[in-house]
Structures are given as structure tokens and as C-alpha cells.
Automatic annotation (TrEMBL):
<dbReference type="InterPro" id="IPR032675">
    <property type="entry name" value="LRR_dom_sf"/>
</dbReference>
<dbReference type="InterPro" id="IPR003591">
    <property type="entry name" value="Leu-rich_rpt_typical-subtyp"/>
</dbReference>
<dbReference type="GO" id="GO:0005737">
    <property type="term" value="C:cytoplasm"/>
</dbReference>
<keyword id="KW-0433">Leucine-rich repeat</keyword>
<protein>
    <submittedName>
        <fullName>Uncharacterized protein</fullName>
    </submittedName>
</protein>
<keyword id="KW-0677">Repeat</keyword>
<dbReference type="InterPro" id="IPR001611">
    <property type="entry name" value="Leu-rich_rpt"/>
</dbReference>
<dbReference type="InterPro" id="IPR050216">
    <property type="entry name" value="LRR_domain-containing"/>
</dbReference>
<dbReference type="Pfam" id="PF13855">
    <property type="entry name" value="LRR_8"/>
</dbReference>
Length: 152
């Protein structure tokens, strides 16, 4: 595990990308607005904590971290989640609380291993309704099924 929390980082250190066995990276509370494509080299990464940074857009490169199991990207300025994230089939936990997400695509509920989905403090959230989102991933899946008339 590498903990770089609260360091006022605006970019990730170059040396980070030569750690092929790194399983957990914590960069909460920095000043990151983007992530470099080189992050994809961290094949063993299972846990990524990006909360409390300056992300206006969700970093696409995260979608290439196929072994990722837990992703925290709370308290940023995200409005949506990129399509690349739907390939994170090992993801069990996703925290996107405290952002500006308005609509959560139904495809997020299709992530087969997802067990925990945190959506609170997204004041503009319309779909699924905040009352449903507060009940967890199973309720969100059920809501999408009811809306679409099919299994997600």
C-alpha cells in the first residue's frame, strides 16, 4: 500500500508507475484534476482512493485497471461516470458520494461483483432517486429493472 494522502499533489510521481505489484494507492485530499495514462501500468492495483481532489471529469484511465475491487472518488466535481468504468468487472465497492452526478446509467448496476454503491451527497441526483440510492446497490438494481422492464 502506498499512502500519498494530503500532500497537495497536482500530479502523481513518475516513480509510482514502476511499482507493478502495488495493490493499494491512496491519494485522497490532494489537488489532482486528472490521472496520467501511465496509471494503467499498475496491473495489480485492487484499491484506489481518489476522494477530495479536483476531478471535474472522472478519469477514463481507471477503466483499464481490471483488477480494481474498490474505488473511492468521493468529494470531487464529477457529473457522470465514463463508459470505460463499466469494464471493471472485479469492482465490489464504488463510492461516488459528494459529487454532482445527475443520472447514474443503468449499466453501473450490471457490474457483476458490485456489492457496495455509495451515492449520497449528490444534490442533483435524479436517476435513481436519492431515496432509492440510499438503500444500496440491490435497491438501485431493482429500480433499474422496474424502469426498464428487464434485468440489468
Amino acid at each position: 500500500r502506498l499512502d500519498l494522502d494530503q500532500n497537495c499533489l497536482t500530479t502523481l510521481p513518475e516513480g509510482l508507475f514502476v511499482l507493478p505489484t502495488l495493490e493499494a494507492l491512496y491519494v485522497n485530499g490532494n489537488c489532482l484534476a486528472s490521472l496520467p495514462p501511465a496509471l494503467a501500468q499498475l496491473d495489480s492495483l485492487r484499491e484506489l482512493r481518489l476522494s477530495g481532489n479536483k476531478f471535474g471529469e472522472a478519469p477514463e484511465v481507471v477503466g483499464s485497471l481490471h483488477n480494481l475491487r474498490a474505488l473511492w472518488i468521493a468529494d470531487n466535481e464529477l457529473r457522470d461516470l465514463p463508459v470505460s468504468w463499466y469494464s471493471l468487472t472485479s469492482l465490489t465497492e464504488l463510492d461516488v458520494s459528494g459529487n454532482r452526478i445527475e443520472v447514474l446509467p443503468a449499466r453501473i448496476a450490471q457490474l457483476p461483483q458490485l456489492q457496495e454503491l455509495t451515492l449520497d451527497r449528490n444534490p442533483s441526483l435524479q436517476e435513481p432517486p436519492p431515496t432509492v440510492a440510499a438503500l444500496g446497490v440491490d435497491a438501485v438494481r431493482g429500480w433499474f429493472v422496474a424502469q426498464n422492464g428487464e434485468s440489468v
